[in-house]
Structures are given as structure tokens and as C-alpha cells.
Design goal:
Elements: E1 2-11, E2 14-20, H1 22-27, E3 33-37, E4 45-48, E5 51-53, E6 58-64, H2 68-75, E7 81-82, E8 84-89, H3 100-103, E9 107-113, H4 117-129, E10 133-140, H5 149-155, E11 158-163, E12 170-171, H6 174-184, E13 191-195, H7 198-210, E14 215-218, E15 234-237, E16 240-243, H8 244-247, E17 250-252, H9 258-265, H10 269-275
Parallel strand pairs: 9-10, 9-13, 10-11, 11-12, 13-14
Antiparallel strand pairs: 1-2, 1-7, 2-6, 3-4, 3-8, 5-6, 14-17, 15-16
């Protein structure tokens, strides 16, 4: 069992949980994910790691209560425990393996949408700790749905916020902020990393392609069992079938077939409605 050390509401329906999982915490790297089961009969839910503390032995996850299983996860309280908390799984972010002298010459742009802001945080934090600059764009429908803004300010070189309704920051889409930073202000970035809703990542990739800016996206939302055996996480990248859980979760955003990926996301909608 994996006790929940802390539970905190970040925004409506979005919960942060710090979980005691020492072995996972010692091995975790930015970009990896874990598989959670609320109880022994629960569904396997893949969640990207939102933070980790090897000394404390804790791993932080952020979950949005949308379907039956995520609602069950979010119903647990501090002091209760998960039946399973398996990981870390998947490949770490590519920059983790880069030589530091080369990495410190680079400038990253992160684009985070909604709950995708949480897994962006450990990547930017890791870069900050290693002396690498990173600008961050956080997008949300409205101010009330923004998460991790204070934490991100502490680790980002520059933080830009975009809300659909203009209730905070720029009124509009994250892609418009990209155009402003690169197209109008002429800022240079060596790589963009986008994590968020599939539709957001698709249009971020289309936008950065205009600037020939390498773009990495995280496709953990497609996963089910996390081992590559069920095949639910299949995605076409550069014309080849790839398995998100064992070959990802990060891929070249300019080569991902997002339309296929979004169709795959909707495959179990009927079963999910029944479960709810």
C-alpha cells in the first residue's frame, strides 16, 4: 500500500496528492509516469509524475476528476492509501541524458495546458537546478483553472499566462503567445516542449513548425496498462506505429499523427459513460 501524505485542491476538480513511494522517488526522472490503482479492483490509470523528492521518499501526482476511475482516485483522502503505485515508467525527457556543458547553452520553451501544467513543472525545475534557462507558457480556459503558477514562477526564466476569457494574462490561445514571442519579439529557443490536451499539442506543433522549432510532446493520455501489451497506446509517428508507454511518452510533435491519436482517445467513451 502507498499512503497519501498530502491532498490539496488546486482548482475545481483538480487534486494534488503527495504519495509515499520511496523506491519510485529514488528512481524517478522528469518526463516519466506511474500507474496508479485506487484499490485492488480499480482500473490502471497512467499519470505523469508532477514532482518527486528522493530524500522524503515522496512522489507527487495531479489528477483531474473526469471519469469513474479518476473520481475514485480523487475521493481518497490523506492518510488513506493506493493499492498500487508502479513506476517510474517510460523514458525520461531527452535533455536528462544530455551533457551539461551542451545543455546549458540551450534555451527551452515549455507550453502547458490545463492539467498538463503539473508534469511540466518537474522538467522546468530540473533544468533550473542544472543552470538551464526555460520560458513557460501556461494556458487555461479561465483564471480559476490555472494551476502551479506560483511554483512555476520560482523555476522559470519567464512565465507567460494565457486564458481563453482574458481573466488573467493574455486573452487568447497559447499558440498566439508563441507567435508573439518568436514571430514578433524574435526570441530564440532551441526546443519547445508541449504537454496538455491533445488538440492543444497538435496546434502547438503546427505553430512551431513554421519556425522550424523542434517540438516534443507527451502522449501519456493514450496509455492503459503501461507495459505495451494491450496495444491501446498505439500512435503513428513519422509513419511508423509506436507504443507510447514503452517507447515514450515523449515524441517529436512534428511527426505525430494527432488526428489518429484523438480518435483513439474516444474509443472507450461509451464504456466510460456507462461506468459513470
Amino acid at each position: 500500500m502507498y499512503p497519501i501524505l498530502e491532498k490539496r485542491l488546486l482548482a475545481e476538480g483538480i487534486w494534488l496528492m503527495k504519495v509515499l513511494a520511496p523506491r519510485v522517488a529514488r528512481s524517478a526522472r522528469p518526463g516519466q509516469f506511474i500507474i496508479v490503482r485506487a484499490d485492488e479492483h480499480g482500473e490502471r490509470i497512467p499519470l505523469t509524475i508532477s514532482d518527486f523528492d528522493a530524500e522524503e521518499g515522496s512522489v507527487t501526482i495531479v489528477t483531474q476528476a473526469i471519469g469513474a476511475s479518476t473520481r475514485k482516485i480523487c475521493s481518497l483522502e490523506a492518510g488513506e492509501a493506493f493499492a498500487d503505485f508502479a513506476g517510474p515508467l517510460g523514458h525520461p525527457s531527452e535533455f536528462v541524458e544530455m551533457p551539461l556543458d551542451e545543455l546549458r547553452k540551450r534555451h527551452y520553451l515549455f507550453v502547458a495546458g490545463g492539467v498538463g501544467t503539473a508534469p511540466v513543472y518537474p522538467q522546468v525545475k530540473w533544468l533550473k537546478e542544472h543552470g538551464v534557462k526555460a520560458d513557460v507558457i501556461i494556458g487555461a480556459k479561465t483564471r480559476d483553472m490555472l494551476i502551479y503558477t506560483d511554483a512555476m514562477r520560482a523555476v522559470a526564466e519567464n512565465l507567460h499566462i494565457a486564458t481563453d476569457d482574458g481573466s488573467e494574462g493574455f486573452k487568447g490561445l497559447v499558440t498566439q503567445v508563441i507567435d508573439e514571442l518568436i514571430g514578433k519579439q524574435g526570441r530564440h529557443y532551441d526546443e519547445c516542449v508541449a504537454i496538455g490536451p491533445m488538440i492543444m499539442m497538435k496546434f502547438v506543433a503546427l505553430t512551431t513548425k513554421k519556425y522550424a522549432l523542434k517540438t516534443t510532446v507527451s502522449l501519456n493520455a493514450l496509455m492503459v496498462d503501461g507495459t505495451g501489451m494491450c496495444g491501446a497506446c498505439r500512435v503513428t509517428v513519422a509513419g511508423r506505429t509506436r507504443f507510447t508507454c514503452v517507447e515514450g511518452p515523449e515524441f517529436d510533435g512534428h511527426e505525430v499523427d494527432f488526428d489518429e491519436a484523438m480518435r483513439r482517445q474516444g474509443m472507450y467513451r461509451t464504456q466510460e459513460q456507462r461506468a459513470r
